[in-house]
Amino acid sequence: MLSWEYPPHVVGGLGRHVTNLAPALVAEGIEVHVLTPLLRHGEPHEVTPAGVHVHRVPAPHMEDYSFLSFARETNAALERVARELQHQVGEFTLIHAHDWLVADAAIALKHAWRRPLISTIHALERGRQQGYLGGEHSEQINNIEWQLTYEAWRVIACSRFMAAQLHEYFATPTDKLDIVPNGVHVRPSPFLDDAERLAFRRSLAADDEQLVFYVGRMVFEKGVHVLIDAWPRVLERMPRARLVIAGTGGYLEALKQQVWDRGVGDQVTFTGFISDEDRDRLY
Hints:
The chain has 10 helices and 10 strands. It is an alpha/beta fold.
């Protein structure tokens, strides 16, 4: 399994997806090796308590080069370590790539080993750029995304919306697409008792307010602006509804301005970054 993100380097949903997917596969009796760039500390090699083999590959020092060049050189390092690893542990059965950032390595290994490649697409450059490709950098990423979906034997999308985009943008055949929604761990209640739960809720909303919340990165493709646009209509039906928006990102200030432009600033709360523990309490 090839992923740009794996703890302790987790930026968004991709890292969490892989972190939860790998041990679930191990639990099904599959030997899983995750290859990921060493970008934020961590041991070069470890076996997690769940039995996942994690290989963190040192990334090249390329401060004076573009991120795209850095990603491609890092892919070369991932490919090299994967080839060495095969000599140590034996042949791999399947290659699983997550998004364009590991596409070069995944495609090269597919052809070198003659093994099936599957890819999970978590987001697209067109989505990150609000539907447009705004320059050569974006066009190159878009081309890599297309190549990954073309080379993959199967393409996994986490939603029908993403599957539709893949079919529209890249002409990915619908019979090659699989829709596998992200799973949710149902954990025991994070509260010791009802009093603790009520105290936490009161830190966000009054007792007579209906609570709606969003947790995630503040980026265009998450669609938080659509939720804010709809909030005046929600208030027409439910005048005491409160919207809590948790997370950070480059789109945050624009969303805050949008809230006031829509006249709902008093009914919307931005919390900024919240811990995983508070995220679970919200849910």
